[in-house]
Amino acid sequence: MTLFEPITLTGRHVILEPLKHDHHDGLVAAAQDGELWKLWYTSVPSPDGMAAEIDRRLAMQEQGSMLPFTTRLIDPATGGPGRIIGMTTYCNIDAGTPRVEVGYTWNAASVHGTGTNPDSKLLLLRHAFETLGCVAVEFCTHWLNHQSREAIARLGAKQDGVLRSHRRTSDGVVRDTVVFSILEHEWPMVRNGLEHRLAKHR
Hints:
- It is a single chain.
- This protein is of the alpha+beta class.
- Helix content is 31%, strand content 33%.
- It contains five helices and eight strands; from the N terminus they run ββααβββαβαββα.
- Strands 1-2-3-4-5-6-8-7 form an eight-stranded mixed β-sheet, with helices on both faces.
- Helix 3 (116-131) runs antiparallel to helix 5 (187-199).
- The mean pLDDT is 93.
């Protein structure tokens, strides 16, 4: 038994559910919202590749290195799960420290700027620091993905450095990776900042 077990996390705008094969069609529809897989600096699965990506993430969950989630909107009429808008994960899990990375995250284009991303991050960070007892949470992104870098910095994460020629992308190019982190003692200030941002999206 490990602390990193599948769990459902519910926020103000989104619900993070354990990833399942049944989510396939909803995830395809979410990826088609903005044709996100065509953005060269991201790793959003294409509709044809969604089933394989679900299999990959669930296999990594079995190995203990990832805890994948499907992101849903909260239905304003019922307060329950609404439509699927994307995916996120705990990855590179170090259960012994414990320490974790939040990554492989994407949301449908139509919900960008609506509070879904900070809500999702608040849920993941709160669970990591306040339930799992993590000493640090890490974020990594492509050096050229300026939108992602700015979004991570807005969370309150600090840049640790750049890993040069770190990882080969799906098109075969070797990318530089920017690494950010939030430490345990920084969490209360980060939490306050996220809650303030979310108050604007009521």
